[in-house]
Structure formats: C-alpha cells, structure tokens
Design goal:
Blueprint: H1 5-24, H2 26-40, H3 45-49, H4 58-64, H5 70-81, E1 95-99, E2 108-111, H6 114-135, E3 145-148, E4 165-167, H7 169-175, H8 179-183, E5 185-186, H9 190-193, H10 198-209, E6 214-219, H11 221-235, H12 240-243, E7 249-252, H13 258-266, E8 274-281, E9 284-288, E10 297-299, E11 306-310, E12 318-319, E13 328-335, E14 339-353, E15 356-363, E16 367-368, E17 375-376, H14 377-391, E18 394-403, E19 412-421, H15 426-440, H16 442-448, E20 458-462, H17 466-473, H18 493-499
Parallel strand pairs: 1-4, 3-5, 3-6, 6-7, 7-8, 19-20
Antiparallel strand pairs: 1-2, 8-9, 9-10, 10-15, 11-12, 11-13, 13-14, 14-15, 16-17, 18-19
Helix pairs in contact: 1-6, 10-11, 13-14, 14-15, 15-16
C-alpha cells in the first residue's frame, strides 16, 4: 500500500496551525462559533422561542436561554425521531446516537445532524491526526490501515420510522465516514464493523484484522484490550507488535486510560507504541491531547461547539475564557445537533487556560458521597492505578458503591473488581487501595480517620467477563457501553452480586 502520510501531511499541518491560532484567540473563536449556531437555528422552534435572531452577545445568550438537560428536551427529540423538522436544529434529522444513560438508567437519543458531523465530529477526527503528526513528524501512520472499534445500530427504541437510524455514535460515524478515511478502515466491511452480537463480532474482528497492516487503533481501552488479546491468541504471538509490526498509536477515549496502561504495555512493544487521548462523546467531539505527555487535552475552540463551565457552587456558569486553572467544572455545551446549554454530565479540570486544556474529572452523577466523602471517578481511577502498580497486578474493570451504616457496622465502600492479573492477597490489595484513595481525596481521608465514620474499603474479586454479562443482561453490551465506575447507591452492585449468586 502507498504511504499516504507525506501526501496528506500538508493538509493536517494546516489544520494544526489553524487550531493553534483559534486556541490563542479563544474568546473571538468561541464568540464566532456561537454566532453561527444562533444564526443557523434562528428559524427553528427553539430559535423562535428564545428569539435567537436578536441575541447579540454570549452574555445575552446565557441569560436568555436556560440550561436544558435531557429531561427537558426528551419530547422534542422524540418529535425529531418521528420526522418533524426545525425543532431543535434546522431541517430533519435522521440519525440519533443512543447513549446508555448511565447516570439514570434510561437511554438517551442524541441527534446526529449533518452539520454536527461536518463541523464537529469529522473536524475533531481530523484534529486528532493533525496533532499526532505534529507531535511525531517521523510518523507513517497513513501507510497502512486504521482499526476502528465501533458499535452497532442495535436500539432499545421501538416503532422507529424506517428512514431513521438509531445506534451507537461510533456506528453512526462509521456509516457516514468520508470515502478517503473509509478506504483505510479495518474492518473494511461495514457489516462486520457494525455487528451487534459481540459473540459473533469478536471472532469476525480478529479474522478481518489479523493479516492487515494496522498502523492505528481507535476505541475504548477496555473493549480494545479484549480484541487485542484475542488477536494475539489467534496469531499465537507474544505481543500485538508481533502481529502488527507497524502499529504506532492508540487513539483512545471514553474512559480513563490510567488503569489500563500497564496492561497495554504488557502486550505491546513499548518502544513503538504511542497513545493519544481524545474527548469524543455522544454529544460531540470536544478535545484532543496536544502534548506528548498525557494528562490534558486541548479543548477544540473552532469545532462547532460553544462551551460553558459550571463551578457547581451556585454561581452562574463561566465562558471558556473566564475559567480558572486547577478548578473543576461541570461542562455545558451548545452544539449544531440541537443541544442548547446542555449539561452533558461530565466534570472537567482546567489544566491550563492559555491555551485551554482540560482533563476529565468524572461524571456529575457518578460519585460516592454517602458519608460526606465526595469521592469522584478521577480519585478512584488514580488510586486503583497506583495500587496495581505497587502490587504488580492488573485490573480490567471495576465498579464501586457505598455500604450503608447498620447497627452492627460502620459504612464503607464496596468495590467489585475484574482482574486480568490478580493480586497475591486480596486483603492486602484492599488495604493498599484504601490507603491510596485517602491520598487522592482529603474528604475521604478525613472520614476514614481512626475508622470513626468509615471502615476500610472492601474489595470483591469477580470472575472475568462479569461486567460484560451484566451489560448483556441490561441490553447494553457492545460499542461504547461501559459499567459506571461509581454509583451513589446500590442499583448496579446489588444486581451484579445477585447475578453471581450473592458472593
């Protein structure tokens, strides 16, 4: 295959320079994005209701239009699915990304408009390649295939018009992928890439990729780890580079990579493998790692999305050019898919303000605060990574929930963990995890002090495949679906334990 990298490099270099320019002039870029969004939606029902045509500034927009979480737009989205036009966005929308709705258990259907694909998702994807080529000028990434791990069009919604496609965002992107990118994709056949049944899909993915010249892989770390292990097994190899010697980079997102890094390092040639984090959610493509060192992502200021940041302390949300470094905010977006001042449920930490770089701190509703400890996902991810590193073990996945105080015991956190390499002593692992979580979160440390309010963490090792079995039982196995890391109640943990026979 011809190495297209030198041919395409000028286009991506131009994109990287353009992105840097807009990042340096954040207020002007974001104001221009908002102005375009308001103009394009001025004749929609939403635009008429809030008189978009007369809004003259970002401050006026934020004061006139209320925040609109999914509960406020659910019926409007259902009208769009039924074929009504000019509701939340101009025209008729025929594609919707099904989100598992992990915070409340109900599926959400995010409009995927032609404008959102062009201005946001595909522009974001181009930005990823642009940043990678900028960071690694020696790359030959376009000289082979890109293995993109996608979902399917399996939907939990019935009575959908035949002209409407509902499914995972990754399936929507694969279906609409521009021709040049589609030519480099593995698996090449859409019917394989979009299979819904993972019992059939996994061996089909292995067969489609094992003999290919794979240069990049893209997807969720937990899911791709399973695929890579199966490829290695089928090839009777030691590492994935024994199968794909030209593999350069993993473009990953969806969940924190920290807990998986050691496992990827164990099955790759670390001298060849690179990693680049992306922030690509069902609601939009928001950021990409632009430094070699992990830990932060450049917020895309010119990719069709207007951002606000809620300090979650009763104050009004801030614009992107008003945030403070080191602070954690809930992210609010306005985008060309009809989401207006929409809180997506993620919290982000501001790593730098010029340019604006962020890291994902967790979910606004995925936390444990049963005892005033305010533990969030970035705390537990960091504690688990440190514990696995110190005890030479590896965790594939986990979920945690509170065990409430009874007459005979104090409260505690209970973790269910799937290990690919189990610790020698699960009790010692739990003690070290508790110690590391105390280092990560001062509120948890205070509640654990002297075991007066909280007992140490309890860890239950569950068999491999447990979380996939649970996801399958809920109809949410595959694609971008994942078990919530944390829950403020026991709606997830108890059914899993019941499924296992009450370990």
């Amino acid at each position: 295959m011809i190495n297209l990298t030198p041919i395409c490099r000028p286009f991506f270099v131009a994109r990287a320079k353009e992105l840097a320019h807009h990042a340096d002039d954040l207020e002007r870029s974001q104001t221009r994005v908002l102005r375009t969004l308001l103009h394009d939606a001025r004749s929609t029902e939403m635009g008429s209701k809030y008189a978009f045509a007369s809004i003259g500034s970002a401050n006026e927009y934020c004061s006139r239009v209320p925040q609109r979480p999914y509960e406020a737009i659910r019926e409007d989205v259902m009208r769009m699915i039924r074929g009504e036009s000019d509701v939340l966005w101009r025209g008729v929308c025929r594609r919707f990304a099904q989100s598992s709705g992990t915070s409340d258990g109900f599926s959400k259907y995010v409009p995927v408009t032609d404008d959102s694909l062009k201005r946001n998702h595909f522009r974001g994807s181009a930005s990823v390649v642009a940043q990678y080529l900028r960071l690694y000028p020696d790359s030959k990434v376009l000289g082979g295939r890109s293995f993109i791990l996608g979902g399917s069009f399996a939907s939990t919604l019935s009575d959908v018009p035949p002209t409407v496609c509902i499914g995972d965002l990754s399936a929507q992107l694969i279906e609409k992928m521009p021709g040049a990118s589609a030519m480099l994709r593995i698996p090449a056949k859409k019917d394989v890439a979009l299979m819904a049944d993972w019992r059939e899909k996994l061996p089909a993915l292995v067969q489609a990729s094992i003999a290919a010249d794979v240069r990049t892989i893209s997807g969720v770390p937990s899911w791709f780890l399973t695929v890579l292990r199966e490829v290695i097994k089928a090839a009777e190899a030691e590492t994935i580079h024994d199968v794909w010697p030209n593999l350069e980079v993993f473009f990953h997102g969806g969940i924190a990579f920290g807990p998986y890094r050691a496992q990827y390092e164990s099955i790759t040639d670390t001298s060849k493998m690179r990693y680049l984090e992306t922030y690509n959610a069902s609601e939009g493509f928001f950021g990409v790692q632009d430094l070699r060192a992990p830990g932060s992502m450049l917020l895309l200021p010119d990719a069709g999305v207007f951002y606000e940041f809620d300090p979650m302390d009763g104050r009004e949300p801030l614009k992107s050019w008003e945030v403070e470094q080191g602070k954690v905010y809930a992210l609010i977006i306005t985008a060309p898919n009809g989401l207006w001042r929409y809180p997506i449920g993620d919290t982000v930490r501001i790593e730098s303000v010029a340019p604006l770089r962020i890291s994902i701190a967790g979910r606004t509703k995925l936390f444990i605060n049963a005892f005033g400890e305010e533990v969030m996902v970035h705390n537990t991810d960091a504690a688990l990574s440190a514990t696995c590193r110190e005890l030479a073990c590896a965790a594939d996945d986990y979920t945690a929930a509170p065990v409430y105080t009874t007459d005979g015991s104090k409260g505690r956190h209970q973790w269910l963990v799937e290990f690919s390499k189990s610790p020698a002593d699960i009790a010692a692992f739990a003690a070290k995890l508790d110690e590391n979580l105390r280092k990560q979160n001062s509120d948890y440390d205070a509640k654990r002090s002297g075991s007066i309010f909280l007992d140490p963490i309890e860890v239950i090792e569950v068999p491999g495949g447990t979380f996939n079995r649970w996801l399958a039982s809920t109809g949410k196995l595959g694609g971008q679906r994942k078990v919530p890391r944390l829950s403020p109640d026991r709606r997830i943990v108890d059914p899993i334990l019941e499924m296992l026979g009450g370990l």
